């Protein structure tokens, strides 16, 4: 089969490469001529385990070519961004989807399948995509087969999950669903859940909203526990021993291009019916400021004004800083007048080593759960002016006994100690 994939980002590129690996002739399309030239030379623009090796292989097989122009194919897969609009409820901006559909329509012929993988607001397929296709004198379900098949992979584990995760296949008609299932059936080993486009849209959005709401509950618990003088992490550990309870982990906030974005698509489509989702968003959005306030309290009695951020990415072991709460914490600390150094071994624009970043600092603030942060060596902490760590991700496992280690479990105690020391001095 010939497949054209529009959008070579975190989802489109691995998807295109997998189709090529399973024998299809794939053209991957993106706007950036620099990026497509790099890809054709085997150079990736994103960090994702296993992807580089697969790219090399499909280039050798001659099954993958990156281009800035779409080409005629049997199936078209749209994997372009759908950001929030700057309106009241941050609704879904479908302009990239519309541009992608417009770019392929000149090549589409009777019998072809068009699949939207990008996350979209409820009713986007029937209200926006279907009319665009039918304007070109095609009947959807008869001439052209249209489906929404949202991806549900976890960055960092994409190559495995694309193949093995259950897949939602939501056609405009049953015939559309069957055609789209046949396309994915060439490599997906997980269950294919056949449904309608509308159900596929909201199902994907609710998966991420579920997580966002649950993380908000954990973050709220962290604040409540700090206020009441209770170890939040211990509470979560014990509560989760209950067979039907799974409290998530508190952190510096919720980032990424999914959890911090998707709930707004649901909220904007039904604002009066979604107070819980709106509150969850507000709680998670409040976390970077909360972290800044805790840092101010922890630093009140420390010597010096320099703090070191460990991690800028929105989560661990990836290089993605989009919508990252760590970036908001950084901005907040800069605004509060702190001198800041950053150590992030996954972000190439951050060249400092751990030793360099810790030199002369009075507090390390762990904001991403990279594996590198599990053990904080003494070669880092020995260089600090005062050795204290505030671990917002509860990731640090080994640290020198001399270091004052704070997380959401003992934050209330650490703040009390700082306050007492201030009063005494
Ligand atoms: N986080 C917490 N506490 C937790 C779990 C996560 O604070 O207990 C934070 C993370 O640090 C991060 C954010 O939440 O800032 C989101 O991270 P994540 O690992 O939950 O999810 P994403 O955004 O990387 O990927 C999600 C996944 N969705 C679900 O797990 C329901 C993934 O399967 C989706 O494919 C992806 O969104 C997407 O593309 O929609």
Automatic annotation (TrEMBL):
Gene3D superfamilies (alphabetical): NAD(P)-binding Rossmann-like Domain
SUPFAM superfamilies: 6-phosphogluconate dehydrogenase C-terminal domain-like, NAD(P)-binding Rossmann-fold domains, UDP-glucose/GDP-mannose dehydrogenase C-terminal domain
Family, similarity comment: Belongs to the UDP-glucose/GDP-mannose dehydrogenase family.
Record-annotated UDP-glucose/GDP-mannose dehydrogenase C-terminal domain positions: 308-398
InterPro entries tied to this protein: 6-PGluconate_DH-like_C_sf (IPR008927), NAD(P)-bd_dom_sf (IPR036291), UDP-Glc/GDP-Man (IPR017476), UDP-Glc/GDP-Man_DH_C (IPR014027), UDP-Glc/GDP-Man_DH_C_sf (IPR036220), UDP-Glc/GDP-Man_DH_dimer (IPR014026), UDP-Glc/GDP-Man_DH_N (IPR001732), UDP_ManNAc/GlcNAc_DH (IPR028359)
Source organism (scientific name): Listeria rocourtiae
Any Pfam family: UDPG_MGDP_dh_N
UniProt GO MF annotations: NAD binding; oxidoreductase activity, acting on the CH-CH group of donors, NAD or NADP as acceptor; oxidoreductase activity, acting on the CH-OH group of donors, NAD or NADP as acceptor
Keywords associated with the record: NAD, Oxidoreductase
Name of the protein in its database record: UDP-N-acetyl-D-mannosaminuronic acid dehydrogenase
Keyword Nucleotidyltransferase: no
A GO biological-process term: polysaccharide biosynthetic process
Transferase found in the keyword field: no
